[in-house]
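Box 3.1 A note on notation
Throughout this textbook, protein chains are presented in two layers. The first layer is the amino acid sequence; the second is a token string describing backbone geometry. Keep the layers aligned when reading.
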Amino acid sequence: MSNDDTAYSPSSERETEASQHLQRDDDDLRADGIDPSKVTAAPGTGGADDAGDVEPAPEDLHLPWQSEDDRRG
């Protein structure tokens, strides 16, 4: 594997290290409309498929098979 292969890979060591050590602070999250108190694990701190743990509000979930009553909680 050449350096080019790992330099652009989403799971490259450099990108993994950056995501684990250069986390966004609360002000960054608020600027994107994210309540920092709802984030329990930052994306990139787990495995390659880790999307983070965020508790979304029920009204933010839009699942095609879900009824309106279920969506309201």
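The two ends are 49 Å apart (CA to CA). The chain has four helices and two strands.
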